[in-house]
Specification:
The chain contains no helices and eight strands. It is mainly beta. Strand 4 and strand 5 form a beta hairpin.
């Protein structure tokens, strides 16, 4: 099984985490929501698989390209 880094595509603040490690996700399922310039931007699963780890917490500021979670491909 391959693992995949889930990266933020923007600079922003983690507004809400909507999944937890162990959840089985389909490609494009939302993992967490970022807030940037009063807009809510979802960070989605890049592949079908299981969420292994979330590397950020709510209210944490993230930068573009930062790894926010790790998934295992189904």
């Amino acid at each position: 099984m391959s693992t995949f880094d889930v990266k933020s595509e923007i600079n922003g603040k983690v507004w809400k985490i909507i999944t937890k490690p162990g959840d089985v996700l389909e490609e494009d399922d939302d993992i967490l929501i970022l807030e940037s310039m009063k807009m809510e931007i979802p960070v989605a699963a890049p592949v079908d698989g299981k969420l292994l780890e979330i590397l950020v917490s709510e209210d944490e500021t993230v930068t573009e390209g930062q790894v926010v979670a790790i998934m295992e491909e189904a």
